[in-house]
């Protein structure tokens, strides 16, 4: 059977769609920047545009679609699916008071105990936008709803920071606490990523999608980047050098450490352990244009370290490898030569990456063997060389660096030529 799959990725700064055939070959790809990453109206308009920009002939052949979104970007909507709250982005930490409430309910080391977790955001949204009969959804859940029309469905990956337990495949017992119990009707039903949810609504069909196309449960943007990389051995890792720095290591064992912002996503019978720093390539855009980044990087000599030790946050607050909402950016001293400043930034980001992988292993994750690289920073050779020195294991650019490619693979499931690759994961169900 020939499967044509469409993967759609909503990252921080932009959204992309990639259509693949059964051999994993790219049939079409399209991208749009997001002017307001927290505006659901813009997400919806972008979704329609991305689909319409796929050539009609390819669009009509698409048999499966999966969408990934930024993790813990959430909103409340009414029973018709219309947003009734602002969308809170993954790094939105306004819910400090709700965090204090949740600290009296959730187990002490649980990853929901962060001001940016989906569950803390749900408590905050419920307080400020009370609703009867509404739904709490993640960005990827809501965008998939626009295509299949079914509300109240999420996936293991997006639901992890909501408190869902992917090992037990249920919400934990402490969700019955009197403060959380009233929120239960808002919670999504959670399925394995890649599970077929439904077929396109009439509106989605009017975009040229076949009525038989299947819309699948999605994943998060950095897990989609992991899937895109082709990494599949225990010890393989993928670093996403996007707006934020995200580490994912394929491990036999889950590990968790709230103090270090470390948690584990379920991937079949294995675990994707890691964390996401608030630092990342976005800081580079604060100081350099894309042309300057390319040009100055050519003047960097990775063999001559600058000795600069920055903590390149955009603003106060870090999640991983140390979970410290009060950590301040450190961007001084600044050398006169711009290429040395850039090198210092790249070295500092690489140091954070190294500390992150070290911490995962100290906690008992499977040993790091090699690191693939995804995201907008992946194609910078100087950064790659610097990272290689810090990490001490082979570092390479992922064969496919686009999360949208990974979302398309997720949509394919194991029913096509990707079967061989997926069989090397000891999958039992889902992805
Ligand atoms: N040559 C380069 N060297 C380093 N970083 C780069 C380069 N070109 C682009 N970037 C960075 O890539 C980031 C965008 O990557 P992308 O994966 O699209 O991000 P996201 O989806 O997380 O918003 C920007 O923050 C930009 O600074
Ligand atoms: O920073 C992010 C936004 O781009 C990452 O998506 C995110 O925090 C990583 O989360 P997850 O491990 O759940 O995929």
Automatic annotation (TrEMBL):
Transmembrane segments: none
Catalytic activity entry: D-ribulose + ATP = D-ribulose 5-phosphate + ADP + H(+)
Record domain Carbohydrate kinase FGGY C-terminal: where: 238-412
Organism superkingdom: Bacteria
CDD domains registered for this protein in UniProt: ASKHA_NBD_FGGY_SePSK_AtXK1-like
InterPro entries according to UniProt: ATPase_NBD, Carb_kinase_FGGY, FGGY_C, FGGY_N
Gene Ontology terms for molecular function: ATP binding; D-ribulokinase activity; D-xylulokinase activity
Cofactor(s) recorded in Swiss-Prot or TrEMBL: a divalent metal cation
Residues of the signal peptide: none
Keywords: ATP-binding, Kinase, Nucleotide-binding, Transferase
Top-level EC class as recorded in UniProt: transferase
EC numbers for this chain: 2.7.1.47
One GO location term (cellular component): cytosol
A single BP term in Gene Ontology: xylulose metabolic process
KW Cell cycle (keyword) present: no
Location of the Carbohydrate kinase FGGY N-terminal domain: 5-227
PANTHER family for the chain: D-RIBULOSE KINASE, SUGAR KINASE
Family from the record: Belongs to the FGGY kinase family.
Protein name: D-ribulose kinase
Organism for this UniProt entry: Parathermosynechococcus lividus PCC 6715
Highest classification ranks of the organism: Bacteria, Bacillati, Cyanobacteriota, Cyanophyceae, Acaryochloridales
């Amino acid at each position: 059977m020939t499967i044509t799959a469409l993967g759609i990725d909503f990252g921080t700064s932009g959204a992309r769609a990639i259509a693949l055939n059964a051999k994993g070959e790219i049939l079409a790809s399209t991208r749009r920047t997001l002017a307001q990453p927290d505006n659901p109206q813009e997400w919806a308009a972008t979704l329609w545009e991305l689909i319409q920009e796929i050539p009609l002939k390819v669009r009509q052949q698409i048999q499966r679609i999966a969408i990934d979104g930024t993790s813990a970007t959430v909103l409340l909507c009414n029973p018709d699916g219309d947003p009734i709250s602002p969308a809170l982005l993954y790094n939105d930490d306004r819910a400090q008071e709700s965090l204090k409430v949740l600290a009296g309910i959730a187990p002490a080391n649980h990853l929901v105990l962060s001001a940016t977790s989906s569950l803390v955001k749900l408590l905050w949204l419920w307080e400020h936008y009370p609703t009867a009969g509404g739904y709490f959804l993640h960005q990827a859940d809501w965008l998939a709803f626009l295509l299949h029309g079914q509300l109240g469905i999420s996936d293991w990956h997006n639901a992890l920071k909501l408190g869902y337990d992917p090992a037990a495949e249920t919400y934990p017992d402490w969700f019955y606490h009197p403060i959380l119990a009233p929120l239960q009707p808002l919670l999504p039903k959670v399925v394995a990523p890649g599970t077929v949810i439904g077929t396109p609504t009439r509106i989605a069909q009017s975009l040229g999608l076949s009525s038989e196309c299947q819309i699948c449960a999605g994943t998060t943007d950095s897990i989609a980047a992991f899937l895109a990389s082709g990494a599949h051995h225990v010890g393989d890792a993928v670093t996403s050098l996007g707006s934020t720095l995200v580490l994912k290591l394929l491990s036999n064992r889950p590990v968790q450490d709230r103090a270090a912002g470390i948690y584990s996503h379920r991937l079949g019978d294995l675990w994707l352990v890691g964390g996401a720093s608030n630092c990342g390539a976005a800081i580079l855009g604060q100081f350099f244009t894309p042309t300057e980044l390319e040009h100055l990087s050519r003047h960097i000599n990775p063999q001559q370290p600058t000795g600069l030790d920055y903590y390149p946050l955009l603003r106060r607050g870090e999640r991983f490898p140390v979970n410290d909402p009060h950590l301040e950016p450190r961007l001084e001293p600044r050398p006169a030569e711009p290429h040395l400043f850039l090198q210092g930034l790249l070295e500092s980001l690489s140091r954070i990456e190294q500390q992150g992988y070290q911490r995962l292993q100290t906690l008992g994750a499977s040993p790091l063997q090699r690191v693939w690289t995804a995201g907008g920073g992946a194609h910078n050779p100087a950064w790659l060389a610097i990272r290689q020195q810090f990490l001490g294991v082979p570092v390479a650019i992922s064969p496919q660096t686009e999360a949208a490619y990974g979302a398309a693979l997720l949509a394919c499931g194991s029913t096509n030529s990707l079967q061989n690759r997926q069989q090397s994961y000891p999958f039992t169900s889902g992805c």
